[in-house]
Specification:
The chain is about 5% helix and about 50% strand. With about 350 residues, it is mainly β.
């Protein structure tokens, strides 16, 4: 029993004091995990986003994370045409240690974006997000010290009665954020935002020990600018801080227009991001009809984990579908394009 409780304690200590929340290299296409104030921040009827990440697969499938979300503007006929009120739903699942620790989240978010000028080029938004979280530690998948036989395999029967116990923990979480975006014309945009997750510092422990989830503060900034009639430069960066863990990612991609069809444009993205002291992240993307956008990135590990990971940081896939306005003449706000 002492062995398994010690292991649980180590997992919790690592998570609470040294680890971080699940995060994506393609943070720029995961809006509801980046900042609640991004809810409804787009031009269109609704937006569906999905992300999948497999990090350090050579280290016993260390982390597998997936999300699915939908958000949309509401009351568009009752508020100012330069304002936007959005609501959204996010589901996230995260598996650690080859499925030993599972975390599942269901979030509801809302944000209101207020136009700051009559043309709608500048907006300031405030958003909130509430999350129901479920954590599960599966003791049946743990390999304990007394299971290791003389041949180095995990075949000996354990004497620990908790080896077949599954631990569960549920809690409610709260997040909030603000977001500003501006433009000087219809062809560029720049933005800045800040968000805080785990504002209420929920208790996250499978035992009676008092371990609390530390607040995470994330700052994000970026923009896009025309390079030519057929190319745009997209830049983005974010920095998050949670207890002693810090995560800084910055980079950009060039968008190349592949055809001249005004009603069915096709664009390709190519670029790279850098996670400070951890990985180089090349990225390619494809956008069709201003609605579908596919993204693929791969973390090339550059940290001290290179020997264990074989320089394989992890693959990440993203997909966003944005339903275009039914009325082609409807007024469009100058929203950021990530």
């Amino acid at each position: 029993m002492r062995k398994i409780l010690t292991l649980i304690l180590c997992i919790l200590l690592a998570k609470d004091f040294y680890g971080q929340d699940p995060n994506f290299s393609q943070f720029f296409v995961s809006p509801l995990t980046l900042n609640p104030a991004l809810t409804g921040k787009f031009n269109g009827g609704y937006r569906i986003a999905g992300n999948y990440r497999n990090q350090w697969p050579t280290i016993s499938n260390a982390f597998k994370t997936g999300t699915a979300s939908i958000d949309l503007p509401i009351l568009t006929n009752r508020i100012s045409e330069i304002d936007r009120w959005g609501v959204g739903v996010l589901a996230l699942t995260d598996k650690s240690g080859n499925g030993i620790l599972n975390n599942n989240y269901l979030s509801l978010s809302t944000a209101y974006h207020k136009g700051l000028d009559e043309d709608g080029y500048h907006q300031l938004g405030v958003g909130f997000q509430g999350t129901y979280a479920q954590s599960r530690l599966d003791g049946t998948k743990l390999n304990l010290g007394d299971e290791l036989d003389a041949n180095g395999t995990w075949t000996s029967p354990t004497q620990d009665p908790l080896n077949n116990v599954v631990f569960n923990k549920n809690y409610f979480d709260l997040a909030a954020g603000i977001f500003y975006n501006g433009a000087t014309s219809d062809w560029n945009n720049f933005y800045f935002g800040i968000s805080m997750y785990h504002i209420n510092k929920p208790k996250e422990s499978f035992t009676d020990a008092l371990f609390y989830l530390n607040p995470r503060v994330t700052v994000q900034a970026g923009g896009y600018f025309p390079l030519s009639e057929t190319a745009n430069l997209h830049l983005s960066a974010m920095h998050s801080n949670q207890a002693s863990a810090r995560n800084t990612v910055a980079g950009g991609a060039v968008e190349f227009l592949l055809n001249q069809d005004e009603y069915a444009p096709v664009s390709m993205y190519a670029g790279a991001w850098l996670r400070l002291k951890d990985a180089v992240i090349p990225y390619v993307g494809l956008e069709i009809n201003n609605e579908w956008r596919f993204g693929l990135s791969y973390d090339v590990n550059t940290s001290s984990l290179k020997p264990a990971s074989n320089t394989r940081g992890g693959i990440e896939l993203s997909l966003i579908y944005t339903r275009q306005p039914r009325d082609p003449n409807a007024r469009k706000l100058n929203c950021p394009k990530f």
